[in-house]
Hints:
Radius of gyration: 28 Å
Largest sheet: 6 strands, mixed
Number of strands: 16
Low-confidence stretches: 1-13
Number of helices: 29
Structural class: alpha/beta
Shape: globular
Amino acid sequence: MSLALAEPVLAARPPSAPPPPTPRDALLRAAIQTARDRVAPLWPLSSFVAVNPFLGFATTPFERAARELHRLTGAPLVMPRAFYRAAFREGRISEADLDAVLAASPAPALTREDCLKALTVDSAPQRGGRVATVADVLDALSDGDRQVSRTAFMVDEISKWCAAYFDEGQAAWPAPWRGMGLFEAWRWSVRFDHNARVMGVKGLAATVSALPADPMDAIAAVLDGLEIPQDQWTDYLYRALFDVRGWAAYARRLDWEAGLTGQPEGRLTEFLAIRLVWGYALFRQRRDAPFLAAWRQALSSARTGPPAKDDDFAVDLVLQRAYERHFQHGVIARLARGQGRPEVQRPDLQAVFCIDVRSEVYRRALESVWPRAETLGFAGFFGMPFVYHEHGGAGHAHCPVLLTPSFEVRAEKARGGPLALAKSLKPIWTALKQSAVSCFGFVEAFGLAYGVKLAASALGGGAPKAAPAGPPLRLDGLEQRERVRLAESALRGMSLLDGLARVVLLVGHGATSVNNPHAAGLDCGACGGHSGAPNARFAAVLLNDPDVRLGLAEKGLRIPDDTVFVAALHDTTTDVVTILDEAAAPATHAADLAEARRKLQRASELARAERAPLLGLSPLDGEKVFARSQDWSQIRPEWGLARAAAFIAAPRALTAGRDLEGRAFLHSYDRAADPDLKVLELILTAPMVVASWISLQYYGSTVANAVFGAGDKTLHNVCGRVGVLEGNGGDLRIGLPLQSIHDGGGFVHEPLRLSVFLAAAPEDISAVLARQPQVRALLDNGWLLAFAIDDTGRVAHRYAGDLRWEALCWTE
């Protein structure tokens, strides 16, 4: 079936009732929904958070998703064979690992000898991307010509337009289509944009005018015009979105947030319409016999699907599982060494850190210099899901993106003084630098001074900057019942039900770096890509409130009268921990806090010394991390969550004293204090899922950085304060820069699916999973790999899928 496009009719027509939906309409909506769901959301730079790029495939087994992604797009989901060869040579894959993986396979078609032989050669090139778009076919026909790639040109044009439409304040002049819908604004702007015609793509405006104005109708018309069979709709729509997956992901995020608040979703559907209409304009431009024959062949090839058997790919999947098994064996061996440190009747101090893997290093350091201190792990927003307004400014959600903020917290607006003056002058200063006219005068007047500043920053030096305490936070606006509920939930989640110390530090975290578009990616993921300081400060105010404590006592949770909660901030770039709001603490605890400052300083020195070698520094040069944090030319101020590979929910006694190398998310959990499994359910549905998003973002950025990563950081240009482009054009980049996972000589991050270790009975974990089908899907389909720890601290069972567990026997 072909589509004949008529010229637009200008005469007014009487309105008519829309026709009733047909089965074909339902099929189209289902295909669009499936294609949309395969796209993972992308948050803007200001709140950049780790996202699982394979989120839309969570209900598909890992191995099948790997084949499907490769069939649709050509993207790999495992590393090149040379990577596994090096891992085997270095002892990170053993023959025992291969034997165990092959033995666990339900229908092993390979032997150890097959795998060892395969390690000696590179795998054969796999033909991927069987689903081709119009632009792909045109590019293939013009192979060898010097003309611009139709795909690259189309992506550039769509990207430039989206950058203008979605701009979040970088542009000095607002676009004229503000207030229009996405597809409507694009249709309007195409009339005035002659770039496509100049570059040889004629008829774009005519095609747009002739197609329906409704995005759903336009998509249907294009599918008809391209003669896409109905059973290929979903694949073609997803493949079209994949060409501009960065902006598609951004539109998906807008729909995601709209859905959380009950607002209508449709941005990604409108974006899909733009992408399809662009491709259809290319189709209409060239209708000669060679092109039509190539197009029909592409449709036929897409229908055939993936090859029935691929031994090379099967070997690579075995090697990946063996690689993961070797890491798991190492963690299990560490956990099997018995109790890490003796129980303390009442600790001198308790410090609750975010479960972020970077805190694992610091917690070990603090416990080594202060044996009578106890550390705990909890999500860094401390169970306080709010929107935070600083100094009367715009608010930002300080909670995981999986949650919806339930209240707002406002910091007092600065009144007078240098801080208030600086904030009032900042917009003027920014406008002076960026204006189309004044920027030239700005460079002439202040350029030399900036040169001195940049040179001094690049040379390093300077003392660490103390984190500001910030203005007071209030409990205004929250009813007493809600305050008590929040406090109780936080205490239970932290397993802080008894034995509280005189001082309990709530340690949020943030990172210090300059000239770093992805700076928010180093901050607290549990706080929506922001510093966790406001959450720690608010939680401390809440838990110190006498009325809240009275309400907790009525629920059987009594906080000792001499216990004080104090907020702190862990700078993960410098490993400095600063106590916040110390002046608000009672004088009776001055000596306790003074001792805490001394021990925290010593722990910081140890943590920096441990992290220094990964940054290319000597352990004796740990202080140089301060210079890195202030250096505008530094592409690796810290490693963030690189190397993260495990999630452990257990009492600290099971992990204390074990060197987990900063690779484990450590969440406190006491099964004896959780008879109704509510805390376990909370851990599995929130912190564990967030940790899996982080793990899989790093995984995707490592196995296929060109596809799921952000490319070379040194080539980045900030686009509309939304994201980055690599160079001066192309699609919005998703994922992590290459410098976040690679040190220039090799990968620092190891592409491992997250291994989850839970100190809970297998039947209890299964009971929770049975109530949470979305979380269960992650485990059943192999996106997470779970283990159960028994009461002795031994990892005794492995999750085998379908709520079943296998007993473990690690003999080698």
